[in-house]
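Following up on my earlier thread - several people asked me to post the actual chain instead of describing it. Fair enough. Here it is, all 157 residues.
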Amino acid sequence: MTDTLTGRCACGAVQYALTSNPMFVNCCHCLDCQRQTGSAFVINALIETDRIAVSGETPVAVRVPADSGRPHDIYRCPDCQTALWSDYGGRPGLRFVRVGTLETPSALAPDAHIFTRSKQPWVGLPEGAPAFEVFYDMATQWPAESLARRRAILGEG
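Reply from S.P.:
Thanks for posting it. Predicted structure:
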């Protein structure tokens, strides 16, 4: 990452900076993401929680139901309620940052499109983009450095 990526909520009460590149960027087309965002998909940048430097207000976790049955906390601005990032599955060391909240969302293109089985039929995917009906094998899709970072944060050696 050559420039620090910064973002904020709609009202500006919560501002943040990513202190490193994310591990991976997913464009998720699952029905949960569609329902929770009110859109056809969400683009999430997976990064360690301690690599998000927050200034201003502290985002508030809102627990939402998920089809997986695992905990899903969406962190929102306490003032305007913009969704900034999520913790999927109760892994507090990892966050899925909503790329649309970056000052320059175009800085992070998706590395993969997931859950395309529920993709809206009018959404086209870029030619040659890695796309998966459900999920992918992380060992073959993620860069080695990102896999090592994930193992470290999850305590998997």
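The domain at 5-153 is CATH 3.90.1590.10 (glutathione-dependent formaldehyde- activating enzyme (gfa)). That should answer part of your original question.
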